[in-house]
Design a protein that fits this description.
Blueprint: H1 2-37, E1 39-47, E2 58-61, E3 67-69, E4 75-81, E5 85-89, E6 96-99, E7 108-109, H2 114-119, E8 120-123, E9 126-129, E10 137-141, E11 164-167, E12 177-180, E13 196-199, E14 202-203, E15 215-221, H3 224-227, E16 238-243, E17 251-264, H4 273-282, H5 300-304, E18 308-320, E19 324-336, E20 343-357, E21 362-377, H6 380-389, H7 417-422, E22 424-444, E23 447-466, E24 479-502, E25 505-529, E26 560-575, E27 579-590, E28 599-610, E29 623-637, E30 649-660, E31 663-672, E32 681-694, E33 699-719, E34 729-752, E35 756-773, E36 784-786, E37 800-802, E38 810-813, E39 815-819, E40 825-828, E41 834-835, E42 845-849, E43 854-864, E44 867-877, E45 880-883, H8 884-889, E46 922-924, E47 927-939, E48 948-962, E49 980-981, E50 989-999
Parallel strand pairs: 1-7, 13-16, 45-49
Antiparallel strand pairs: 1-4, 2-3, 2-5, 5-6, 8-9, 10-15, 11-12, 13-14, 15-16, 17-18, 17-50, 18-19, 19-20, 20-21, 21-22, 22-23, 23-24, 24-25, 25-26, 26-27, 27-28, 28-29, 29-32, 30-31, 32-33, 33-34, 34-35, 35-43, 36-37, 37-38, 38-42, 39-40, 40-41, 43-44, 44-47, 45-46, 47-48, 48-50
GO cellular component, one term: cell outer membrane
Family: Belongs to the TonB-dependent receptor family.
InterPro entries: Beta-barrel_TonB (IPR000531), Beta-barrel_TonB_sf (IPR036942), CarboxyPept-like_regulatory (IPR008969), Plug_dom (IPR012910), Plug_dom_sf (IPR037066), TonB-dep_OMP_SusC/RagA (IPR023996), TonB-dep_OMP_SusC/RagA_CS (IPR023997), TonB-dep_rcpt-like (IPR039426)
């Protein structure tokens, strides 16, 4: 019985115990649940690293729409539950997440996000951390950009990127020349020498679409292991541009503006009217009274130049929450050139919207950008030499107020420069629009699919009018020219990214497809003349009265459609953050090339070794970063070709119209030979690099050595037999060109205290360029002569030569031997004899080249409390400039008909050869320029509405140290005729500006 009782009691006890435990557990859960649901008001303050309050910080409850911002004192107050997670975020700072739990107050410090920003590098179709990069890439962030009146984003990089040479005159309408690691082609059309631009992942987008204030960062991909993912368009490097977007949890509003005054930094020292009269009289000569000397004293440079005033305004906004990113900006730029009637006015509008769905698995986005540019210009090819050569002894006006002209005058600068500016109108209206749609899907963990579609429209309208008083259109009663062309580009990108980490292994895979179609020259151009008056300028061309068809020529600018199809793949692998490997392959097909060579492969491979991740480096605290890099790859150059490059083409001949059976008919004939084997130029690059950081990056930098060789160079003037070909010249792949060099970057923080910081960065690059070959047994040529500069008695002469064994831009000139006893210039002929006569073309000899041996930039930044001061010094050395402007002006015997520079006062009047272009006028092009100095002060008002307010003063081109005798030594080094100053240099400017940057 007792046993039975015990047996029967045990289940009962177990049941009661179980029930009791369950009840206690339920009560505990209830209490816990009640505690979790219990909340209240959470308060606190947010400060920066210096313990200063941060207004405008977004304080949001994660996963909800509840949020607030800190006030002027950095304080906040928000309703929360204990289980909530609070996100603190501010643009430019590292966001923080804090669990509420049972806290009643949370005070935090937000750190500046400089390290995170600097660690991210944009590569093709993705990003990478800086420590994982195996190619040669230079990244420039927005806070490092150059200040100044900048019309194109390329100017932001001047002096900042080793190996990148950006040159620009003072012309507001002229695009800068951009050359990376030396010239790799002998073609200039269609930007064949320029880097390839990618904007927010859109390949080939126009860089003019962006306002500099909208750019977050620029990454310059220099070697083929980094650029080959863009295949046939990446031989000149790739410039990746990333625009500004709001960070998660932020709402931002910024305003940036400046006003600037520009003045001519240097003028040519020409003789005044009285000085010229005295010089001519001293030589026993006479300036023709009345027509060449009316008693006036005119400074033509001063008359045509002015102080230019510029302004820029940029306002941008953006925000990002858990599901939506949005933003937009508007920029207005007005830049008046220092040459009268030259100016640029640009309005840029940009907007973006992105929405995420299904727990961020699907992202849809759209971005639209429009850039509208209006440019006014003058016939610079006549105005620029005219203001130097035109006689100062002549008034601009006749007594009746008309412009004074003497068309029978011979020599240089025969047209009234002021008349050239005011009687000739050039206006360009360019409207660019780009629309991009994005679909991004996270299929599996780490596997992401991206589809983007972009359409870009570039509508360019050109209008010019030479009125009835224009010396360029004498007795034509006005000449009008109108051109309207539409260029469209459609790009489809479809690719997969797979990023995963498995223990110590990290793998990133990329595979994709690209389709691009470019339709060019959809429009026409027309010239007509004979207007009853000038009232309508270039408008209403139907009112013209041409006397024949020859007075109404149409542009020979055929429409074409070009297609590019690509397949690409890339693998990135790292082990334990020590050993890095990357390989890529792109297969491009282009309709621009011959039927036998429309497809090509562009492979690349690179590796890196993070030495500081090794165990034997752990005890070496002095070195915090040491990485070796090596890579090899092949990229191509298909830029500048149209759809007909390799085809047999019929077109209009030199005399396109003729009378046939009483009808006006176009004459059609062969204009281009077919080449079914034509293919793109191919550039292979080997790159070896070392990255280092010492004392926790107090000293850091990189060293790169590269060898870049371009083969299958395309030249379109190979002479061929007229019996075998329909046209006597042929386009073929024959030559090769080589660049090799070294690039060094050194960054340092020499001083860093609580109150004062000094950061400095020095970069320099050496490049050696050499033409290896330009012919073969099928197309034999020994050299190509370039740079026909003209000048008195020098028509048909060439000043440069493209020849194997020499650099592109090599000068081929007569050798100056000084003066004979009569003060006459003498030269060395081909036989070695000194002659006091004009040499023959066969007497020219090699005389140096225009390629700089060293390009350098040195920037410094100083911070003291709220003050900041920075300056940039940059320059080049080891290059030559042909001062053909000085040569042409140095004409003593021409002084009764044209002005001369003060330089000519040292010449003998008997020297009838003083003006001949020779190596006498080949000058050292080295310079050191104080490019920019900026002083700023940042206010942090105690208000929740204004985050910061910065005022700054800036000066550009404050001084230049050089031996060059021309206007400025920063001569264009792009194209096949670099380093020539030939009466066409738009004066360089010195700029003073005041600006403001406000963040709300």
């Amino acid at each position: 019985m007792k046993k039975m009782y015990a047996l029967s009691l045990r289940p009962f006890c177990r049941t009661v115990t179980k029930a009791t435990l369950m009840l206690l557990w339920a009560l505990l859960l209830g209490v816990t649940s009640f505690a979790q649901r219990t909340g209240g008001i959470l308060k606190g303050t947010v400060t920066d690293e210096n313990n200063a309050p941060l207004p405008g910080v977004t304080v949001a409850v994660k996963g909800t729409n509840r949020g607030t911002t800190t006030n002027a004192n950095g304080a906040y107050s928000i309703s929360v539950n204990n289980e909530d997670v609070i996100i603190f975020s501010l643009m430019g700072s590292v966001p923080k997440e804090i669990k509420v739990e049972d806290k009643k107050a949370i005070n935090i410090t937000l750190l500046t996000d400089t390290k995170q920003l600097k660690d991210v590098v944009v590569i093709g179709y993705g990003t990478s951390s800086k420590k994982d990069v195996t190619g040669s890439i230079t990244s420039i962030k927005s806070e490092e950009f150059n200040q100044g009146v900048l019309t194109t984003p390329a100017e932001l990089l001047q002096g900042k990127v080793p190996g990148l040479n950006v040159t620009k005159s003072g012309d507001p309408n002229a695009a800068p020349s951009v050359v990376l690691r030396g010239p790799s082609t002998i073609r200039t059309t269609g930007g064949a020498m320029e880097p390839f631009y990618v904007i927010d992942g859109v390949p080939g987008a126009s860089i003019d679409l962006l306002a500099p204030a909208d750019i977050e960062s620029i990454d310059v991909l220099k070697d083929a292991s980094a650029t080959a993912i863009y295949g046939s368009r990446a031989a000149n490097g790739v410039i990746m541009v990333t625009t500004k977007r709001a960070k998660a949890g932020q709402a931002r509003l910024t305003y940036n503006a400046y006003g600037a005054m520009e003045e001519v930094s240097k003028q040519i020292d020409m003789l005044s009217a009285d000085e010229l009269r005295a010089y001519v009289k001293k030589q026993g000569q006479t300036i023709l009274p009345g027509l060449n000397d009316d008693g006036s004293s005119t400074n033509w440079q001063k008359l045509l130049e002015r102080k230019g005033f510029s302004q820029s305004h940029n306002i941008s906004f953006g925000g990002a929450n858990n599901n939506t990113d949005y933003g937009g900006s508007a920029t207005y730029l007005k830049n008046d050139g220092i040459l009268k009637n030259t100016s640029l006015e640009r309005t840029t509008v940009r907007g973006y919207l992105a929405q995420r769905f299904f727990n961020d698995r699907l992202k849809l986005g759209v971005t639209i950008t429009n850039s509208h540019t209006k440019s006014d210009d003058v016939p610079q090819q006549y105005v620029l030499p005219g203001m130097l050569f035109y006689l100062p002894t002549v008034s601009p006006y006749n007594p009746d107020g008309t412009y004074k002209e003497y068309y029978a005058r011979t020599g240089d600068g025969t047209l009234n420069p002021l008349s050239l500016i005011n009687n000739n109108t050039i206006h360009i209206d360019d409207n660019k629009t780009m629309l991009t749609g994005l679909v991004q899907v996270e299929i599996l963990k780490g596997l992401r699919y991206t589809l983007t579609g972009t359409t870009q429209r570039d509508e360019n309208n050109y209008s010019s009018y030479l009125n009835s008083q224009s010396g360029l259109a004498q007795n034509q009663n006005g000449v009008a020219n109108r051109k309207s062309y539409l260029n469209t580009s459609t790009v489809l990108e479809s690719y997969f990214n797979y990023d995963r980490e498995f223990g110590k292994h990290s793998v990133k895979l990329l595979g994709g497809y690209t389709f691009q179609q470019d339709r060019s020259n959809d429009g026409f151009g027309l010239t007509t003349q004979g207007f009853s008056n000038d009232a309508l300028s270039y408008n209403n061309l139907y009112l013209s009265n041409p006397t024949g068809l020859s007075q109404v020529p149409l542009d020979n600018n055929p429409i074409s459609t070009l297609r590019l199809i690509s397949y690409y793949a890339r693998v990135q692998y790292s082990y334990a953050d020590k050993y890095l490997f990357q390989a890529s392959l792109r297969n491009d097909g282009s309709s621009a090339f011959g039927i036998n060579n429309r497809w090509g492969y562009f492979p690349a491979v690179s590796a890196g070794w993070n030495i500081t991740s090794e165990d034997f480096m752990k005890n070496i605290s002095l070195i915090n970063n040491l990485k070796l890099r090596a890579g090899y790859g092949v990229s191509g150059n298909s830029t500048g070709f149209n759809a007909f490059t390799a085809l047999l083409v019929y077109g209009t001949t030199a005399s396109p119209k003729f009378l046939y059976n009483g009808n006006i008919t176009n004459s059609i004939g062969f204009v281009r030979n077919e080449n079914p084997d034509l293919k793109w130029e191919s550039t292979s690059t080997a790159n070896f690099g070392l990255d280092f950081g010492i004392l926790k990056d107090r000293i850091s930098g990189s060293v790169d050595y590269y060898i870049k060789k371009t083969s299958d160079l395309i030249y379109d003037q190979y002479p061929v037999s007229a019996t075998q070909y329909v046209v006597p010249v042929y386009t073929a792949n024959v030559g090769s060109i080589k660049n090799s060099g070294i690039e060094v970057v050194l960054n340092a923080v020499p001083v860093k205290t609580k109150d004062f910081t000094w950061k400095t960065s020095l970069n320099f690059a050496h490049n050696k360029n050499v033409i290896e070959s330009i012919s073969n047994s099928t197309y034999p040529i020994n050299f190509v002569q370039t740079a026909s500069l003209g000048g008195q008695g020098q028509s048909g002469n060439y000043s440069q030569i493209i020849k194997p064994g020499y650099a592109l831009g090599t000068f081929n000139l007569w050798h100056y031997m000084g003066k004979d006893p009569n003060g006459v210039s003498t030269f060395l002929d081909a036989s070695g004899k000194t002659i006091a006569a004009q040499p023959l073309t066969t007497d020219a000899r090699i005389a140096g080249n225009a390629q700089p041996a060293l390009i350098y930039g040195w920037s410094n930044n100083f911070y003291y409390h709220n003050f900041d001061l920075n300056f940039l010094v940059r320059g080049v050395t080891g290059n030559k400039i042909l001062n053909a402007t000085l040569a042409a002006m140095n004409n003593p015997q021409g002084s009764p008909r044209q002005n001369i520079p003060r330089f000519t006062l040292g010449e003998s009047y008997n020297d009838k050869y003083a003006y001949l272009i020779s190596d006498r006028f080949l000058e050292d092009g080295s310079y050191l320029r104080m490019d920019n100095v900026t002083l700023g002060y940042t206010f942090k008002p105690h208000t929740q509405y204004i985050k910061s307010l910065r005022l700054y003063l800036s000066g550009n081109n404050l001084f230049v140290i050089t031996k060059y005798r021309g206007v400025d030594p920063e001569i264009n080094i792009g194209g096949v005729t670099p380093g020539i100053d030939n009466k066409n240099f738009y004066p360089k400017t010195r700029t003073y500006m005041i600006g403001v940057s406000a963040s709300f």
